[in-house]
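Page 42, continued from yesterday. The earlier attempt failed because a stray header line got pasted into the input along with the sequence. Redoing it now with the clean sequence only.
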Amino acid sequence: MAPNAATFYVQLTPGVNYVRAELPARYYPGRVVHQPAVTLTKDPPEIEVDNHEGSAAFWMFPGNAVRGVVMANQIRQGVRVLAEVDDNYLLAPPLDFGAWRKDAVNYHDHSYETHEQIVRETAQGLVVSTRRLAEVYADVNDNIFVCENCVDPADWPAAPDHQRDGILRVGWAASDSHAHDGPLIADALRWAAAQKDVQVVIVGIETWAPPCKHLYVPFQDLPVYRETLHRHIDVMLCPLKFDPWTECKSDLKALEGAMSGAVPVMSNQPPYADWKDRPGILCNDAYDFKRGVKRLVNDREATRVLAEEARQWVLDNRDIRKNVWRWQEAAA
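This time it went through. Structure tokens are written below.
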């Protein structure tokens, strides 16, 4: 086995850690570290990260002074240090759950202010998940690398079921932070629930529910989540209400839907720019979501073909094995 050439320092969100660190680390190859093991040497006084391996360090959305100090010490020791973001951490999301503050109170607090300072003054480069994020961060760091979200086929079924038992399952998988996106698909789900051999499925989100009968499946760990999509969703709705924060999100939900054997139906927003003229449906508003769902429900065979084409597009373009060179290039 090749020695690890980089270390990925992750944060608290398992889903983000998996996509932005664990997948590239598999093929980089690299090591994933949840908490750096730090020792302070006396002569000369230096901070050593005992569990670091390789010549590069990827720090996922660093936002507190402790991480900033460790990153600066690694640079002095000859490590190539990059920050990594998959969302816009220069401003708070529409629904802020308090994990970050506007300003730091102590060295351990994560704040938007400290994050910007680290990316601007410490990190030697920045890895982002979308081209729009690269544009937003351009004034903060001029050495930016776009490494789009990818999938590993080994983690997904080789031949996903579609319309199992003759039922078309129309669903939405989202965290509670997406509650304000729900109204975009309310009419589409209400219509779908009234159709023969159609089931509405909601995965994860608890703060918004569709105005119709539906199956609710709670979030679980990632392997179970992928199995949930595989078994319970044939049409993956991906609504996004536009604002300066959501425009910087990625197309991860479309990738997950396609890999599970579903047709992605997406808001026509920057996160889904790569899906223009691709196998899926882009929607400008709630009316378009309803019209797109009607089209898929009323032509089941065409829907099956579109789902297969969407999955193939993801395999052709977002297989991590074909894209890990982007992370390697950032660290070169």
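Notes: The chain has a mean pLDDT of 91.
Reminder to self: strip header lines before submitting.
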